[in-house]
Amino acid sequence: MKPAIIAIDGGNSKTEVLVVSEDGVVLGKSRGPGASPQNIGVAACVAALEDLVLEAFPGFGERPFAVHTSAYLAGLDFPREEEALHAALSARGWSDTLTVGNDTLALLRAGSAGVGVAVVCGAGINGAGVGPDGRVHRFPALGKISGDWGGGYRLGEEALWWAVRAEDGRGPRTALMPAVAAYFGKPTLLDVVQGLHFEEIDPASIHGLCPLLFEVAADGDEVAQDVVTRFVEEVSVFAAVILRELDLTEEAPEIVLGGGVLTGIGAPVIAEIEKRCLKVAPRAVVRVVDVNPVVGAALFGLDTLGAPEAAKTALKAATQRV
């Protein structure tokens, strides 16, 4: 019997695949780099996903491999993007049926029954919500042009920006200055700037300044704390807008937080986000997701197939982070 579900969660920085049976048993898994169609194009995205699908379960026989494919990826921000990927994946013939959607919805399902609010912050930042009546509220999440601020890379840029200005005198003194220079292994921030300018330092490494920013803030640095406060407000605003748009402010909605930044920043920052969310919806339940979003994609697949709750419980128990 062929597996029930091929589940895919594809963010900007990583992609995960689970192959799951109809009773919620994980039959195989794989992980690779980000494969957002916005970043690498639909054709390259589909090729990368197929490699990961075959790696996850080498025992696949003839196509279709599974009953259902549940694929949730970053970069599916508009209907035309979902339609393009749906057509390309359908042509691969992995499964009898197929669902595609934005990865923020997979996060929501990973941490809830699929109704409520999800805010994700990894390389980028996004939010989505689903009301009890099925209404969905989303954001384009295209970066600055769509009003976004606060993804992991942007937070790293903020740390670098404040550090450089502290060194050259245009900004206040901050512990970010020596910390950022040390992160890059350079004696000064001017050396860091030159290294980035002459492509001697990989610009992708700026993302790694994000956890450093939170560490410096936790040690009491006012400049870093101001950036973290702005980030807390940004996450909270995503949630607040969705709560209001879906008429959830008087309900007891679940607010699921996920992505590498939000799962790694620690309880005090999460508590500040929770405090702001509760001002908008006092009965809300705020939680950091305890399974990877690909589990949400798999749960959506089990939902589609009408699997029993026992199968979903088994899947979550088997994939919960320790």
TrEMBL record:
It comes from Amycolatopsis eburnea. InterPro entries: ATPase_BadF (IPR002731), ATPase_NBD (IPR043129), Euk-type_GlcNAc_Kinase (IPR052519). PANTHER family: N-ACETYL-D-GLUCOSAMINE KINASE (PTHR43190). This is ATPase. Residues 8-301 form the ATPase BadF/BadG/BcrA/BcrD type domain. It comes from the Bacteria.
